[in-house]
Amino acid sequence: MNRSEPDPRVSPEAEFGAFLRSSREARGWLQKDVAQMIGCTPTHISMMETGRRRATSRVARGLDTAFAMDRVFINKALAAESATLLEGFAAYVAKESKAIELRLFDLGIVPGLLQTMDYARAIAAGAVRRGAITQDQADERVAVLGRRQAKLRRSPAPQVHAVLDESCITRPVGGPGVMAGQLDALLAFAELPNTLLQIAPVSMGEDRAFDLPVNVITLPDRSLMLYAESAIQGHLERDSGAVAPMITAYYQLQGLALSQAESVAVIRQRRKDLP
Q1: Torsion angle, CA of 232/218/146/230, rounded to 10 degrees?
Q2: Which helix (H) or strand (E) holds 89?
Q3: What fold does the segment set 89-272 form as a domain?
Q4: Which residue has the higher pLDDT, 141 or 245?
Q5: How far is Cα 154 from Cα 240, in angstroms, rounded to an integer?
Q6: In whole angstroms, what is the distance from residue 39 CA to residue 34 CA?
């Protein structure tokens, strides 16, 4: 009987699939046996084994339980996920949850840590429609974002400074209902005791300090880390000395941006135009 043999060198998904198949066959199990144990279909198992479908965190955890392995499948799934992220992002996220202070700047879309799940799903759905990612990858992106947000809801909470280019609140994403919910979430964010929210108005023109999304975090030892990205490339800077000038640029951005009170007023005005 002919079958598709995944080449582990082709992709992280193929490597995961080859490991799953070899582990299953070593135990004499059929695909339907594994599917029954983790609550999916044999077709789903087949597609993972041939590298055509990425394992979600839920599925990977189920496989670890079924095969009595200690986070082997979940670690392989996370490695496959990281391989598709822009360079440096996975390492940045690993430190983000430990930060005592975060400074965020974004343009075009609301920063991920401030997104509602409906807004995040709409962004991911757009990438699926463009053929940039699969639906499984979209679901996992939203799940990863949810985990990032959850890790920041801790005590004591980190200080979070967010400067949003005005385009973040004027660009429609997901329809009026989704945008209304997102703007409501931003207003709620601004009321928290550990946050500062500012809008960088279009009128700033060339005086806006950054032209790309930038995240700067301060770790418990007071060291700094910066992550910045374009559409196709990410850059992680771990040298505090190299990051320090970016802190100065961020302060300059904040100085020219609207105050939080002014920013909240702008968001509320925009909110009035939505249902």
Answers
A1: -10
A2: helix 89-96
A3: Endonuclease; Chain A (3.30.870)
A4: 245
A5: 25
A6: 8
Q: Looking at domain 12-83, which of 3.30.230.10, 1.10.260.40, 2.60.40.1610, 1.20.1250.20 is its CATH number?
A: 1.10.260.40
- Do 220 and 183 contact (CB within 8 A), yes or no? no
Q: What is the mean pLDDT of the chain?
A: 89
Answer left, alpha or beta for residue 131, where phi above 0 means left and psi between -120 and 50 means alpha.
left
pTM to 2 decimal places: 0.71
Give the separation between CA 76 and CA 72, rounded to whole angstroms: 6
Is 10's pLDDT higher than 80?
A: no
Locate 29 and state its tokens.
């199990």
Bond prior to 6 in cis (omega within 30° of 0): no
> Residue 50's closest CA among 18, 9, 27?
18
